[in-house]
Amino acid sequence: MFETLEAAPPDPILGLTQTFLADPRPEKVNLGVGVFKDAQGKTPVLDSVRTAQRRVIDAEQSKSYLPIDGPAELGVLTRALLFGQDSDLVRDGRAFTACTPGGTGALRVAADLIHEAYPGASVWLSDPTWANHGGIFQAAGLPQRQYAYLDHKTNGLAFDRMPASLLQAKPGDVVVLHGCCHNPTGVDPTPDQWAQIAAMLAERRVLVVVDLAYQGFGDGLEADVVGLRMLCEALPELLVCSSYSKNFGVYRDRVGALTAVAPTAEAAQAAASRLKRCIRRNYSNPAAVGPLTVEAVLGDPELRAQWEHELGAMRKRIAELRQAFQDGLDAAGVRLNEQGNGFITQQRGMFTLTGLPKTAVERLREEHAVYVVGSGRINVAGLCEQSIPRVCGAMASVLAG
Ligand code: PMP
Q1: pTM over 0.85
Q2: Residue with the nearest Cα to atom 9 of ligand 1?
């Protein structure tokens, strides 16, 4: 059978890393995959995580299975991060959390549940969105539509078009929103715009899925869930797919969570049972060391304070890199937008969409060993002080023709 099988194309983001690794040029820069890098160009293990992981391994008495939904305490701690320490919906038992293999695992389980329970639903994704969203929902058998999101003229939110296109969603459809630090654009709604989006979606009676992969990378742990909490106020139910990959730097350990919010505690239990069945049929139950490590950090006041400090330092570095990149482009005479490069510091999180045409992206890679995703997305957190002048110079050169 495999002899007649047509090969699938390489993944647009992880496939690029494979090409990057095989590139012998020492000056190469990978701005593709979304991982944080420090001033030395390394993706470090956080000190809080290293300490917690040692504790977890030392205390481990057994390698027996975890429950289908993972460590229960991580669920409690995740809900507190998402909804706040004194959340009414948590107190009322309206939320259920399963620990999943990363945010991707959460999205796939959510997609399976939606397909099983609401087979007629279409999934509305932002235009543009993370390259893997389409594939995940397609693999679960769900048809997709797009809603307006990025205004290419300003590199800001297309709020003149977004509400109208969301209104095309039918009751019972699914709308995926990025909780903060939108990937790939870096463009987030303001609190005022979030309030309008929440009210509109409530009236539309759609199921909202919030993809939250960067809590703490934008303006802070609490500030980054302002939109999510407004949605919870306005909507009786929603799904949250959160990831600890970035804010704990535990990318390869695969730690995420799927949280279902339901109108009542009974409905939450029903959703929980269905989600657990989806998980059992998919990967059965999650791995232990990564989730238990995150749980150990969040549950210990000292480690948690240390983590918040380390997260704050990553957030600060990303903001500084955004400024340095914007300044570097200005200095190299590159204008990514008719209105200049100011959008780069207005955006949040790791990414910005440069608007570079495909040919320029190819020339950056071939002539300058600068690796950018085909869509023109740049991981600003993959830059460093030394590489910025060279990257900006390379961009000037490929744009000059
Ligand atoms: N959603 C978005 C928007 C992301 O950017 C990512 C990570 N690139 C994920 C989900 C999945 O993250 P994880 O690595 O935890 O699966």
Answers
A1: yes
A2: 103
